[in-house]
Amino acid sequence: MTDPTSTATPAPTGFHLRTPDDWVDFSLADEASENRIALDVWTQAREAGLTESQAGEFTESVRRSVRQARRSGAVHAAGTFQLYEDGPLTATVLVSVVTPPATGDVLGALTAVQRPAQADGTWRRVSTAQLDGIGTVGRVHGIQHVTLDEATVRSAVMHTVVPLPGSTDVLVVTGTSPNVAEADELFELFDTITGTLRLTPTGTAERP
Question: Model pTM?
Fold first, then answer.
């Protein structure tokens, strides 16, 4: 019999994740929030000197990312939209709770998706990483074709799969960016952001 006076450590049901100061936290509540984000991006793009065509393409890319996050059931999303002399930089990080394969072998399932470099420049590598306070997690990163709505975009993608103690589910942190020319730097950025992840008894993502 369990001692009713004892206090058990609650299993984590939430998380904290820090993103850089210049990143924007997305509201995934409804289509109206998606429209507000798109309007902000359009305004920033035009003020930065992009043509209407360039601003429209940039804004639509952001809108697709937010819409995909909302429809996929992500529990948190954040992103950055920066304009440089050689063009815009777009990157997003999503956090999702996912039910793994029936076998429960998450790392085995990840290994099955490893893929060498293809003729179209896409590739996937599977590895593990160490997160402070969490331990060993699974990781898949590479250049992939990402479909958002009906548009397919070649993107740098990193998935980090974190087992949730006391649960059969896993937490997946996904970083994505269409700026494949800066893939190495983006993978380092996604790794840094994921490294701030902390599992908590309750709560959602927070920023510093």
Answer: 0.78
